[in-house]
């Protein structure tokens, strides 16, 4: 898993709220859990659940991160050779987010968490991630609990999150393949967002600011401000047929600019961000400020 799928703020640090006026959405202080779904073979029993701070009442949005937890409990003395999580390909496994606990020990491929580092024991491909001990070793699942994070890039609608399969020392085991047990989530089109391009604008250059609201309605008015003032070139905005709107702003001073977009509706959607504008070639320092100072005043409208 080489692709960097960790969520980072690329152009703006964005916070979206969906509430009347400017009231912020109440933060989710815990991971909502969907499931578990349960089942068994003649060698182990299993449960599979989905959790995450982005999961609210079984609902998520495209671009959210979820955690899938698989738990195996062996029957009698059967050992587990491997566990494989199966999922739709629109759920992309986030690198270095596997952690599993078995026989009183914690193993992980995440260099930033506690546990025995075992990156070679995690493999993946389109639609699957697997943990497997080295060589012909096996685990005593009393129980074995494994978590793996995914970035959801699925279309809006019901999402069966997949299932789990495994192999044990019981050569005649039946019931180890459970590819579509779920649980199922409801995926929304996505949350409001605001971006600016280029990522490193300078004084006197064009800055294209785009506001998106995937669940909005074409024609909804959008008010875009900084420090309470409308950005020049960004007045009288409405969502287009693709539920976004782009305007061009030419900053006249360097500094850090807070951005705030309010998308009309019931309730309105508010999304905020911040963009840093640097001095352009030959512009020098901002008048009235010491060289190297950051301008944080008005927009100079």
TrEMBL record:
Lineage: superkingdom: Bacteria
Signal recorded as keyword: yes
Keywords: Signal
Signal sequence coordinates: 1-26
Biased amino acid composition, Polar residues: 284-301
Spans annotated as Disordered: 279-301
Protein name: Bacterial Ig-like domain-containing protein
Native species: Gordonia alkaliphila
């Amino acid at each position: 898993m080489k692709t960097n799928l960790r969520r980072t703020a690329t152009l703006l640090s964005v916070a979206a709220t969906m509430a009347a006026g400017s009231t912020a959405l109440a933060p989710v202080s815990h991971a909502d859990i969907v499931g578990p779904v349960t089942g068994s073979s003649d060698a182990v029993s299993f449960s599979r659940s989905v959790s995450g701070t982005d999961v609210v009442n079984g609902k998520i949005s495209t671009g959210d991160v979820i955690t899938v937890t698989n738990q195996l409990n062996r029957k009698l003395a059967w050992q587990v050779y491997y566990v494989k999580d199966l999922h739709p390909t629109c759920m992309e496994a986030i690198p270095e987010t596997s952690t599993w606990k078995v026989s009183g020990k914690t193993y992980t491929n995440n260099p930033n968490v506690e546990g025995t580092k075992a990156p070679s024991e995690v493999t993946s491909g389109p639609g699957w991630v697997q943990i497997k001990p080295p060589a012909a070793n096996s685990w005593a699942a009393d129980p074995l609990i494994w978590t793996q994070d995914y970035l959801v890039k699925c279309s809006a609608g019901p999402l069966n999150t997949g299932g789990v399969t495994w192999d044990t020392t019981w050569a005649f085991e039946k019931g180890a393949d459970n590819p579509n047990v779920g649980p199922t989530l409801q995926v929304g089109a996505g949350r409001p967002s605001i971006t600016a391009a280029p990522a490193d604008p300078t004084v006197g250059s064009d800055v294209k600011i785009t506001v998106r609201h995937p669940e909005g309605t074409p024609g909804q008015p959008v008010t875009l401000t900084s420090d309470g003032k409308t950005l020049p070139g960004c007045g009288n905005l409405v969502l287009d047929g693709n539920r976004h709107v782009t305007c061009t702003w030419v900053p006249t001073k360097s500094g850090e600019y807070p951005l705030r977009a309010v998308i009309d509706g019931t309730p309105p959607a508010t999304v905020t961000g911040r963009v840093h504008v640097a001095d352009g070639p030959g512009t020098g320092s901002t008048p009235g400020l010491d060289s190297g100072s950051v301008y944080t005043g008005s927009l100079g409208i």
